[in-house]
Amino acid sequence: LEVVRGAKTAKDVLATVMQIAKKIRKTAVVSGVCDGFIGNRMIEQYSRQAGFLLEEGATPQQVDKAVEKFGFAMGPFRMGDLAGNDIGWAIRKRRYLEKPNLRYSKTADLLCELGRYGQKTGAGWYDYQPGKRDAIPSKLVEDMIAKHRQEQGITPRKISDEEIVQRLVYALVNEGARILEDGIASKASDIDMVYLTGYGFPIWRGGPMKYAEQVGLFNVVESMKRFARNPLDDARFWQPAPLLSKLVAEGRNFS
């Protein structure tokens, strides 16, 4: 549960809300004010990477299986089908006006233009049988992605599960570091708690920020630099957050 503290939120009000969260058995984390707060601001970058991976040669089921094997409760495409792909579509339409230089894969827009919003319409990234939630790989979606690649002049390549996991998880880490810089979250463990309790991140890995420490922040940054050299990715996003670069230079961790 993200408890948003506004500029004029009184201390007693904040304390009361945190107590209420305990009473209703929710894990509460205080967030500052920004678009998406903590969890959704980070998941947007995670989802952008998932879209780029499709353009480059992965399939929705490969991406989902890779991150589910890593330990996520659900991959990004199954998650989109559950939540409703039209929600992300509405956000992207706003982004196209607000940040015209920010690139997104068009695959998700093409999907929504077909009316495939997910489980609620019986079709999304996957096909669904009436009354069932089992995700069935879709030939129509496979063909849609292939056609989009061809129109964009993209030659698909084989993408490893390791690359899929790194790009999705490190996208969370980089945006998480920016959230810390901006003062939206007060500490890395708050970000981890949001993802462990609200976004299906594997508990035994400790959360995205703790996992980055386990891998080694130097190694994470080196991977980001490698991703930035991919012409089909977003090089600007993969510039390590200043906080991340500072911690690496000083040999320190988030905690």
Note the total helix count.
12
Provide the CATH topology of the largest domain. N-(1-d-carboxylethyl)-l-norvaline Dehydrogenase, domain 2
- Quaternary assembly: single chain
User: Beta-strand level of the residues, as a percent range?
Assistant: under 5%
CATH architecture level-2 label of the largest domain = Orthogonal Bundle
State the secondary-structure class: mainly alpha
CATH class of the largest domain: Mainly Alpha
**Sequence of secondary-structure elements:** EHEHHHHHEEHHHHHH
Residue windows where pLDDT falls under 50 for at least 5 positions: none
Termini gap: 22 Å
Name the descriptors:
255 residues; mainly alpha; N-(1-d-carboxylethyl)-l-norvaline Dehydrogenase, domain 2; two-stranded parallel sheet; two-stranded antiparallel ribbon; 12 helices; 4% strand
What does this 3D model show about the protein?
Helix content is 57%, strand content 4%. The strands form two sheets. Strands 1-2 form a two-stranded parallel sheet. The two termini are 22 Å apart. The protein is globular. α3 packs across α8, α5 packs across α6 and α10 packs across α11. The model has no long low-confidence stretch (mean pLDDT 97). With 255 residues, it is mainly alpha-helical. The chain has twelve helices and four strands. It has two domains: 128 residues, N-(1-d-carboxylethyl)-l-norvaline Dehydrogenase, domain 2, CATH 1.10.1040; 114 residues, N-(1-d-carboxylethyl)-l-norvaline Dehydrogenase, domain 2 (Orthogonal Bundle), CATH 1.10.1040.
